[in-house]
């Protein structure tokens, strides 16, 4: 790109930014520049993940990008008056973007490019380190690629934290007519949006990761299965795939290697259970999303009965940087057996909601207070649900526990996909427990009775506890229902729905009308 | 296929045939096909079930099973606009139930119902990936974050005033 004198102004095209008015801000900036006879270079970038500042407008200056936000259309003339095009101060100004503590403190590896580029520009992607991993991968054997991912210590970011390299090795060794790479982009957990951000803000990174996975296991076709709640991500990916194909990164002859790999986006239809990998595969095959019995593992007999890698968006999008920087570089981040970084997502009643990519091992307290700035309304944070609707509610007494897979699992919680939903002290935890059961009942695929029926019973039993009808007896009933769900369910929807319920009872018994903690 | 309810116009029927033609050879064509049909017609009339069954070489029961399983597919026409209110945890933490109650009150309908004038269908949704800007709602394909009662009121007012598309 040739350097022009026009100042470069960036307004995100991420759907969260759009949800709070980024489109109108972009239009207002264009209009105001026209009105003043100024020429600007308006770029629509991904979000930098500081959502409380969205719509965040950035201006490129010789010193770096200067940030302004949250900007609303009426602020725009004022920004021009103040000289924001040359990065001058303004009441909405935050100085250099990279120096904003929220951003400066992060360890952005998977999200290294997020918000820096025009998501659909291949030139931007390449200029910011894109395809360096694929370039290196092209000269490596499948075994070498798998060793690199294994040595990096990458574990699945979709929830179960299974070692990615081990899964790939199984697929590589499996016999099949054809092998597939499927990206699980069904991100249904409340409090999570990292998959969405990545697909909208850095789609080539996912395409690159999937291509490397395909080279590693010998797959020729791939699918990205995303949700109908993500229309913008769907559209962005579809365009990115077309452009990547035109540029030779996908198709019958990937980068002249003689190897074929092509990709397609598919959209779910409003079923949370389709995030479970075997349900997702059923759905991709055109069937109801009933969970499959295992074995066989998808790695052996997955999509259309063929060996299939199925990985979360973030797992796959982390592969390029592992290949580009080497396994040791990535492995050095984190603690214990939780290597690398996780893009945590701060949501719910939090002042500074957004994406915080950090190495494993930091505490919830650091995320909630240092990054999150406490609750949105200034009230005390009372409970935090970590890891989505099947994750436990964590009380303040556990905010100092380090976030790593093993430590969390020891305390009966899970990190899952990294969603963190804060609740203030007005939350009614009995109501949240009831909701957990309600959600399970609503989204159950119906294959096993404990989940299908037990969750409905769970709602009724909690209603009776709340209404103080035979409270002690119903608490005992709830406990045995939770046991039945936990031990009698085929998959983690029924199997883990008791986690939020039990943690609510254990840590917040008074909300259920009992004084002493219920030993659950 | 002369009695396709909701697809009685020649153009609809032609479009339907074209959609089926485009999708029938796709691996796992069922969901893309149903999405395309709903995109074209706004819902999935029962009369298309045998057409899909023929085109994809599956039983009618299988097609029906898919329609029944997924929340997205409509078996009846929706209003001219669809208003979804997020009910999941992050939005609850930011008071989404107040928005639910407000929408029900103003519209005089419950979730999964359409206003008598056909303007608007009200639906729950479980996370729009907009949780850092909770509470969130969706109107057709547009997502709105940091929703507050006054804005919701105004948005609903606009939708009810909007004329039916010609
Ligand atoms: C009810 C349920 C919902 C799930 N939802 C998702 C999801 O939305 N995204 C995801 O990546 N994994 C989800 N999973 C986990 C997947 O089954 C699977 O472990 C994952 O796709 C594997 O990819 P990974 O190893 O890269 O994490 C879900 C599991 C269950 C039981
Ligand atoms: S636990 Fe629930 S969602 Fe999972 S397989 Fe059984 S019925 Fe289906
Ligand atoms: S919970 Fe409402 S947008 Fe995620």
CATH level 1 name of the largest domain in chain B:
Alpha Beta
CATH architecture of the largest domain in chain B: 3-Layer(aba) Sandwich
Q: What about the largest sheet of chain A?
A: 5 strands, mixed
Strand percentage of chain B, roughly? 5-15%
Q: Which shape of chain A, going by the Cα principal axes? A: globular
The CATH architecture assignment of the largest domain in chain A turns out to be 3-Layer(aba) Sandwich
Describe this structure in words.
By secondary structure, chain A is an alpha/beta fold. The longest helix of chain A is centred in the last third of the chain and has 18 residues, at 449-466. Chain A is 40% helix and 15% strand. In chain A, strand 7, helix 11 (231-246) and strand 8 (262-267) form a beta-alpha-beta unit. Chain A starts with 7 loop residues before the first strand and ends in a 13-residue tail after the last helix. Chain A has four domains: 8-104, Glutaredoxin; 122-331, NADH-ubiquinone oxidoreductase 51kDa subunit (Rossmann fold, 3-Layer(aba) Sandwich), CATH 3.40.50.11540; 338-424, Roll (Ubiquitin-like (UB roll)); 429-512, NADH-ubiquinone oxidoreductase 51kDa subunit, iron-sulphur binding domain (de novo design (two linked rop proteins)), CATH 1.20.1440.230. With 166 residues, chain B is an alpha+beta fold. In chain B, 45% of the residues lie in helices and 12% in strands. The longest helix of chain B has 14 residues, at 10-23. The two termini of chain B are 25 Å apart. Chains A and B meet through helix 1, strand 12, strand 16 and helix 17 of A and helix 2, helix 4, helix 5 and strand 5 of B. Bound molecules: flavin mononucleotide, iron/sulfur cluster and FE2/S2 (inorganic) cluster (FES). Iron/sulfur cluster is lined by residues 273, 291, 444-448, 451-452, 489-491, 493-494 of chain A. Iron/sulfur cluster (SF4) is lined by residues 273, 291, 444-448, 451-452, 489-491, 493-494 of chain A.
């Amino acid at each position: 790109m040739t350097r022009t004198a026009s100042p470069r102004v960036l307004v995100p095209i991420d759907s969260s930014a759009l949800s709070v008015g980024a489109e109108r801000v972009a239009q207002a900036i264009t209009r105001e520049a026209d009105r003043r006879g100024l020429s600007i270079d308006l770029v629509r970038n991904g979000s930098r993940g500081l959502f409380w500042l969205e719509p965040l407008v950035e201006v490129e200056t010789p010193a770096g990008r200067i940030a302004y936000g949250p900007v609303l259309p009426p602020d725009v003339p004022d920004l021009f008056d103040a000289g924001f095009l040359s990065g001058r101060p303004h009441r909405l100004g935050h100085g250099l973007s990279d120096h904003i503590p929220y951003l400066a403190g992060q360890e952005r590896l998977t999200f290294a490019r997020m918000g820096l580029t025009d998501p659909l520009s291949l030139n931007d992607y390449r200029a910011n380190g894109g395809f360096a991993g694929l370039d290196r991968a092209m000269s490596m054997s499948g075994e070498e690629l798998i060793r690199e991912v294994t040595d990096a210590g990458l574990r699945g970011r979709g929830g179960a934290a299974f070692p990615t390299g081990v899964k790939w090795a199984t697929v590589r060794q499996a016999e099949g007519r054809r092998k597939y790479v499927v990206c699980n982009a069904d991100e249904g957990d409340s409090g999570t949006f990292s998959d969405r951000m990545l697909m909208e803000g850095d789609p080539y990174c996912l395409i690159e990761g999937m291509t490397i996975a395909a080279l590693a296991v010998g797959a020729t076709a791939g699918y990205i299965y995303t949700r109908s709640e993500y229309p913008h991500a769907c559209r962005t990916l579809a365009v990115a795939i077309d452009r990547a194909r035109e540029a030779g990164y996908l198709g019958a002859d990937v980068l002249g290697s003689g190897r074929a790999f092509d990709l397609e986006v598919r959209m779910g239809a409003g079923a949370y259970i389709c995030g479970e990998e075997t349900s997702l595969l059923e759905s991709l095959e055109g069937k109801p999303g009933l969970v499959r019995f295992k074995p066989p593992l998808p790695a052996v007999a997955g999509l259309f009965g063929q060996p299939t890698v199925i990985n979360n968006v973030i797992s796959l999008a982390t592969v390029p940087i592992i290949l580009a920087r080497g396994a040791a570089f990535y492995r050095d981040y984190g603690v214990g057996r939780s290597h690398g970084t996780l893009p945590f997502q701060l949501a719910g009643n939090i002042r500074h909601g957004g994406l915080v990519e950090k190495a494993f091992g930091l505490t919830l307290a650091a995320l909630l207070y240092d990054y999150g700035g406490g609750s949105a309304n200034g009230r005390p944070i009372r409970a935090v649900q970590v890891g989505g609707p099947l994750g436990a509610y964590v009380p303040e007494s556990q905010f100092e526990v380090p976030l790593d897979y093993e430590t969390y699992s020891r305390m009966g919680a899970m990190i899952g996909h990294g969603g963190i939903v804060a609740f203030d002290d007005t939350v009614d935890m009995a109501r949240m427990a009831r909701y957990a059961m309600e959600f399970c009942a609503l989204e159950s695929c119906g294959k096993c009775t404990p989940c299908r029926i037990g969750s409905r019973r769970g709602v009724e039993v909690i209603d009776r506890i709340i209404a103080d009808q035979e409270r002690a007896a119903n608490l005992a009933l709830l406990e045995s229902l939770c046991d039945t769900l936990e031990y009698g369910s085929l998959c983690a929807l029924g199997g883990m729905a008791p986690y939020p319920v039990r943690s609510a009872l254990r840590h917040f018994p008074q909300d259920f009308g009992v004084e002493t903690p219920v030993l659950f | 296929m002369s009695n396709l309810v909701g697809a009685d116009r020649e153009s609809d029927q032609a479009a339907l045939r074209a959609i089926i033609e485009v999708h029938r050879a796709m691996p796992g064509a069922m969901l893309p096909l149903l999405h395309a049909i709903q995109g074209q017609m706004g819902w999935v009339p029962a009369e298309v079930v045998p057409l899909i069954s023929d085109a994809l070489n599956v039983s009618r029961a299988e097609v029906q099973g898919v329609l029944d399983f997924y929340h997205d597919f409509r078996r009846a026409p929706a209003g001219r606009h669809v208003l979804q209110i997020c009910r999941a945890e992050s939005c609850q933490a930011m008071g989404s139930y107040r928005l639910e109650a407000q929408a029900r009150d103003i519209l005089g309908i419950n979730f999964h119902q359409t206003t008598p004038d056909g303007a608007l269908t009200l639906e729950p949704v479980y996370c729009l990936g907009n949780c850092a800007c909770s509470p969130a709602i969706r109107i057709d394909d547009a997502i709105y974050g940091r929703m507050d009662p006054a804005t919701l009121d105004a948005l609903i007012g606009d939708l009810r005033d909007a004329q039916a598309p010609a």
